[in-house]
């Protein structure tokens, strides 16, 4: 069911500083910041030869990134995003397997304009999983 790793996401308390670290210290190519109020984040992608790193800063009072940073003030790895060909088939398989699909269970449009779903970290060895249909 799983395809490539689309991105690994890091929650950061200061997006501008994190972008500077990736651009200058690590010599990586980064995108312009993109505000996604419907997801409660501002996002920058670091583009790598084999995948992407997604830098996430909280946007708005209900942001799940704000909750994560309250527990991890220095930031840290927030989720891993795997590609799937058919997100509805993947969701239905996961629900039948007993996994918790977050939200109302329906895919939302993510940062790449594609449908995404999130799976509860307690069902996947402490790691929040995002699925993106490609
Ligand atoms: C940019 C758009 C999009 C894209 O296209 O790429 C994105 O990536 S948006 C990214 C932000 N959106 C989301 O994360 C949506 C899904 N997340 C959630 O629904 C919630 O964050 C959550 C995973 C259900 C956590 O909810 P919260 O209320 O913040 O925390 P809890 O205290 O209820 O957490 C329960 C339990 O899980 C642990 N936890 C929380 N977050 C993570 C995490 N990122 N990784 C691993 N574990 C996590 C938390 O510590 C709790 O554990 P215990 O303390 O042991 O109970
Ligand atoms: Co993501």
Automatic annotation (TrEMBL):
<keyword id="KW-0413">Isomerase</keyword>
<dbReference type="Pfam" id="PF13669">
    <property type="entry name" value="Glyoxalase_4"/>
</dbReference>
<keyword id="KW-0479">Metal-binding</keyword>
<dbReference type="InterPro" id="IPR017515">
    <property type="entry name" value="MeMalonyl-CoA_epimerase"/>
</dbReference>
<keyword id="KW-0170">Cobalt</keyword>
<feature type="domain" description="VOC">
    <location>
        <begin position="4"/>
        <end position="134"/>
    </location>
</feature>
<comment type="similarity">
    <text>Belongs to the methylmalonyl-CoA epimerase family.</text>
</comment>
<dbReference type="GO" id="GO:0046872">
    <property type="term" value="F:metal ion binding"/>
</dbReference>
<dbReference type="InterPro" id="IPR051785">
    <property type="entry name" value="MMCE/EMCE_epimerase"/>
</dbReference>
<dbReference type="InterPro" id="IPR037523">
    <property type="entry name" value="VOC_core"/>
</dbReference>
<protein>
    <recommendedName>
        <fullName>methylmalonyl-CoA epimerase</fullName>
        <ecNumber>5.1.99.1</ecNumber>
    </recommendedName>
</protein>
<dbReference type="InterPro" id="IPR029068">
    <property type="entry name" value="Glyas_Bleomycin-R_OHBP_Dase"/>
</dbReference>
<dbReference type="GO" id="GO:0004493">
    <property type="term" value="F:methylmalonyl-CoA epimerase activity"/>
</dbReference>
<dbReference type="GO" id="GO:0046491">
    <property type="term" value="P:L-methylmalonyl-CoA metabolic process"/>
</dbReference>
